[in-house]
Every structure is written in structure tokens, then in C-alpha cells.
Amino acid sequence: MIKLPELTQAPRRHKGRDVRAAYQRGWGLQFSDLADQVRKDPLYRAAIASGGDRSVVSEHNRMNIFLLLRFFLPELAPGHIVEFGAYRGGSSLFMAKVCKEIMPETKVFAFDTFEGMPETDANRDAHRKGDFADTNYDEILRLRDKYGLQDNLELVKGLFDETTPAKMPEIGAVRLNHIDCDIYTAVKTSYTCSIPHMVEGGYWVYDDALYSSCIGAMEAVEEQQIQEAGRFAEQVYPHLVYRNWDPKI
User: 131 with 116: CB under 8 angstroms?
Assistant: First the structure.
């Protein structure tokens, strides 16, 4: 049984973030035995077996998502999960398996071209068009069906700015947006399209903004979350995590 670190000295809410929860997850994974606890958890292991090993997401990032799903999303109003940048489907399959077991009403919607990256901006991005093209849409569908996840995982194929205008209103309320994008325009669109649908206290989780090859992704976060919305990060390890709360409270 996973036991989160006791950090009673930190406030529950400060500047639009839950500081105690942030330390429980981030400090817990980095410095305590929390990672070892998660590795031994039967549901975590089952989720990896359902396709999580196909992901290029780091182990601690995957664990952080698992902790959010298991302990924190159930505290929010009902809503679904969207992922932007599904690549080979590892994280999507992983999240769908966890949700199927503990939040069966929550569905995962995985957005991607499933053909590699679109055009990028050489002034911001290190990645180029066609990167991450070694994926297979039909293979991900076969794995989804193999592991019985067809009822709570939907792949949304195409460019984000073409698929989200119709799909996001259809999805409705969102509790978590996993933005696993490496380039500026993709991160911008992923955040903007989710704003009207994010529940109170919902999570934006950025997988790549802190990586050395993804300065464009970080620029989008700086513009949107910091400069425009005035938010403060709830976590800086292993992810950048922001909450849909008033940053003045």
C-alpha cells in the first residue's frame, strides 16, 4: 500500500497551488522511498504491462501521473483526461488502465498526428518536422483492444488545431491535461483548447518543458501560464504542474 509522505508544515493552498501535495509527490519521488513503493504497487505494474513500457516518458514522470490519478484526481469534480502528444501510445494506455480500475467513468482522449511532428519553428524548437514518426496508429488500436481498454481510450488522429475545435466540446469536462509536446505551437494549442473545459482545480501537466531540447515548449508555458494567467507552478519535479485555481488565493 502506497503511503504519501507526511508534510503537515506546508499549506494546502497558496497562490493557486496545493503546496503540500506538490511536496508529497515531487519531494516524495526525488528523496523518499515513494518511488520504491510505487514500483511495487500491483496497479502500477499492471498499467505498465498494458503498454506503459512503450512510452518515452521518464519513470518518475510516469509515477507522478500515477500518483495524480490514484490520489488526487478523485478529489475533483467529474471530468476526463486529455493527452496531447501520444506518440506510440504508452502513456495513454497506462492512464487508461489505471482509470479503468479506479475511475471507470473517466475516459482518456489521446491527440496526435500519429505520423510524426508537423512543421516546427527553427527560432524556438530543436525538433523538426517528421521527428517521432516511428509510430503506428493501427498498432496502438490493437493494443488498446487487446488489453480491454476500448471503452475508455480514444485516439484522436490529426493536427491539434484541426481536431480540437470539434472534439473538445464533445469531450466536455477535463480533470487532467497531459501535455507531452516538444514544440511551441503544439503546447500553445494544447493549453488554449482545454481552458474552457478544465474543472476547478484541474491539472495541466507538462512533460517536456524542462528538457534541454524543448525550449520552445517552455516558452509557451512562460507566455501562457506565467505571463498571461499569472499562475505559479505546483510542481517543478518531475513535471511542471499547474492548477486551474485563482493564483491570488
Answer: yes
Model confidence, pTM: 0.94
Q: Measured at the alpha carbon of residue 246, what is the angle toward residues 207 and 211, in degrees to the nearest 5? A: 15
Alpha helices in 2-136 (DSSP H): 19-31, 34-40, 42-49, 59-67, 90-102
Summarize the confidence of residues 132-151 as an average pLDDT.
Answer: 90
Which of 157, 16, 162 has the alpha carbon at shortest distance from 89? 157
Grid cell locating 9: 508544515
User: Domains in the chain, ordered, with CATH?
Assistant: 19-243 (3.40.50.150)
β 153-157/108-112 pair status = parallel
Q: Are the beta carbons of 244 and 202 closer than 8 angstroms? A: yes
Tell me how many degrees the CA angle 26-27-28 measures, rounded to the nearest 5. Answer: 90
Return mean pLDDT, the chain.
93
In terms of DSSP bridges, do strands 198-206 and 174-179 run parallel, antiparallel, or are they unpaired? Answer: parallel
Nearest of 97, 25, 93, 89 to residue 60 by alpha carbon: 25
Instruction: Kindly state the DSSP code that residue 108 receives in the 8-state scheme.
Output: E
Q: Per-residue confidence at 126, pLDDT binned at 50, 70, 90?
A: low
Mean pLDDT of 205-217: 88
Q: Which amino acid, one-letter code, is at 118? A: P
Task: Report the C-alpha gap between 248 and 245 in whole angstroms.
Answer: 9
Over residues 9-25, mean pLDDT:
90
SS3 234: coil
Output the pLDDT for position 182: 86
